[in-house]
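Quick question: what would this complex look like in 3D?
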Amino acid sequence: MRRVLLVVGLLMFFAGVAFAQLPGNVPRNETLIVDQLTGRVGTPSNFNLWAGWRWQDRGLQQLVCEPLWTVDYATGEIICGAASELPQYNEDFTKMTVKLRQGVYWSDGVPFTADDVVYTIDLHVKTPGLLYHGPMAEFVDKVYKTDDYTVVVELKKPNSRFHTHFLDRWGCLRIMPKHIFEKVEDPVTFEFNPPIGCGPYKLLDYDPAGFWTLWERREDWQRTPTGMLYGEPKPKYVLFQAFETEEAKILAMLRHELDMAQFAPEGLRVVLERGETTRAWRKEWPWVVNIDPCITGIVFNNMVEPYNNKDVRWALTLAIDMVDYMATAFDLMAPPSPIHLPPVPAYIEAFFNPMEEWLKNFELDLGNGEKFKPFDPEIPQRIAIAAKERGYPVPEDPKVLRELFGIGWWKYAPDVAEKLLKKHGFTKGADGKWYLPNGNLWKISIVTDTNPAHHHYRNAMAAAEQWRRFGIDATVNATEAFNSLHLMGEFEVGTMWPAAEPWGAGVDLSRTLEPWRSSLVAPIGQAVTLGPGGAARWSDPRLDEVIAKLEATDPFADVETTRLLGIEALKIVVAEMPTIPTYGYCGAVAWDEYYWENYPGAENPYTQPYQHWPNFKYMLPFLKPKK
Amino acid sequence: MRFVRDYLVPRLIQYVLVVFCGVTAVFFIPRFAGQDPVLEMIGQIQAQGASLDPQAVRSLMETLRELYGLKGSLLEQYLTMWRRVFTLDFGPSFFQFPTPVAQLLRIYLPWTVGLFVTSTLLSWILGNIIGGIAGYFSGKAWSKVLDAVIMVIRPIPHYIFGVVLLILFAYLWPLFPAGGLALGRRVVINWNLIVAILRGSFLPALSLVILGGVVWFQQMKLLVQNVKREDFVEYARVGGVKERRIVFRYVLKNAMLPQITQLTLALGQVFSGVLIVEMVFSYPGIGLLLYRGVTRGDYNLVMGITVLSIFTIATSVLLLDLLYPLLDPRIRHR
């Protein structure tokens, strides 16, 4: 009996002593606990994000750094943070003027001024070991201040997009505290610990093994751009925690030990079903964030036969039944996109809607004077029917369906695909399999990521299934060398991003188009510099012309020209189909409303919804404590 | 002198050969695996949507190749590697650049050693004692029941078993944490922290002790069942030696020899860690570190951990070979 009592006592002691005890003994009800997307920090003591990959989503880019500008894809805005207004260029784009926000202080009490901006740019021009040394050394001729809050950058050659190096979209050149770095001998090896920033939080503690980082709200949060723009961030503490497995993350959220996290769709479902206070971005099915500024899909190596042939690429597109594809890839929850852009709100208005008529009338030449219109506007309705068959509560309103499933995709037309292939000598054997023009069996090995939860993997599985059904011997090769193979061109078909992520706001598509600039296409065996989109190793002289015109256009002063050039470029890419865009990236985000509420859900998207984006700091003033 | 010529020298030569071949294999295998650590790093940065222009990426590639020590021919890199092996300086980790591999080992190894050695010894002791007794009394009902229970537990994969423990003791009956918030911290003399570390380590240790213990149990039980049928045991029993003495001095002692060998080899596995357990319980160990190194093409990190692993296992086998004559008179006699 005594032993039993001892065991019970010990268990009660364990349960009592450290129940939900947080690092630093910070109170749970004043702490927001969020999942760290990129996992355990590999360089826990090093916060110098100017010199390399530092797992900046541990709170560094979200809570400490305040860039000049930040993109918000949910609202379509560019938020002026450390800058007080958008940049101004001179006529030939050789001079950029930046006005800074006044009254901002670094977290150690030193005022933020033009000296910091000038120092940052200067240091990057001079220091090869810093990440942004390349563009700064290439473009910056002179940088100086005209007063304490105005900086002028004179460029060696025209660049109408020079400001984008300072526009935060999960990474940019953030401004350094001059008073810290000027005392440092080597800015590359300097650990920048503790980090000093103009964001509303400061470092409180971190785990030397990299599992968590704890931040505390600055007492002078009013002297930060976040405080000035949106008010007091509500959580006094923010804890970033890395989980090694989905199960641990699920349990933590169900125990109210995790407030914000991104799951695999299956994990999201468990959390929503089992949790009494959990919610997703959308309160009803399909739950997931479908406004992510990133497009997923299939990439062809355009330097390898037969994928260097436009008709083959189109045949493979038309061999896909998008409804089936979506059922396999993401349980019908994601929005298909027929163009090489994600359907974020700003782009639906600027590109998707205006291109709809063109898409409907777009024709493929099947040879012998035969034409085919491949666009299928009925896809959203067909997805809705399939989802209903699976028992999901699908909205009836066509407007909502369009919001959920986009404007359409490409027709499932295996007969047309067959014509396109036969035009080039492909044959279909009696065994129902396709043979290459040289008589060999057509085999496709789709190179993809090893993470089954990733959209790359999901796209690969769905594409292989579709093409097998069409008669091609398609398999999936999930490999750890995924990035290396794509960048070096040592693949035929893969599922890296089919196009570079656009800015997500405004109408400037230069970021998406840049990787297809002919001067950046590298031969197989030599790495391309821009993997997303660029791994396709495709270019087109017509696109080069559009990119050149875009370069000569001010994206702020000449919005309409910028937008129309974007549409012109998208039409070229669609017609050539160097990569197949399938559906917009979806984040299976879950929030626990046990301690905090008023997250930016679909019903009130006041800002982007992820905790790992730099804009996270702008979300915190809107959260409301519940306990 | 005959001992040195016929026993010691061949084993020393074997030891040197094993280390040489092992280290050489570890150098070449990752380099032929198709992964380029520089491109993996670039891929990782770009996959998150970070904005880098082509010029920046090009200069970054050059810089990383320089910093990672990947410039020069394969032979030059190979010779550099041997210099690093002898100085125990494996250079910086690539994906955790600029952190030196040696520093990472200093941070993570104690956690793995603490968990792995403790749980291995505990499972070994418990498994052998209980297995030995159950083997000796294998005809008893309780021994059969225990055997059946262990037959059920043994095939359960570590991952499933860990998740079940988490669901039971971290969710349904939340006595222990689901993640390792207290683990990995700077260890200071602080009662709350020590309790938190013990709580955080309890479930991973429990899973290792149980799943490791059942293996030791079954091995020992079979060994004992064989030994107890040997003539000398029967002779002792007939000679009136007390049961307790027969169990511990005659049967268990003889059955222990292969178990000691197994234990030494098992402890040598410490460097490869207990990956699955570390993953399930978010435990800051060397197994996860090695896994990350392999998946990211981090040659230096993989090199650092596996070289130590090769040395440890080869040295333990050598020591075991040298100590065995002391433990087993039959070898001494030969």
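Answer marked as accepted. The radius of gyration of chain B is 25 Å.
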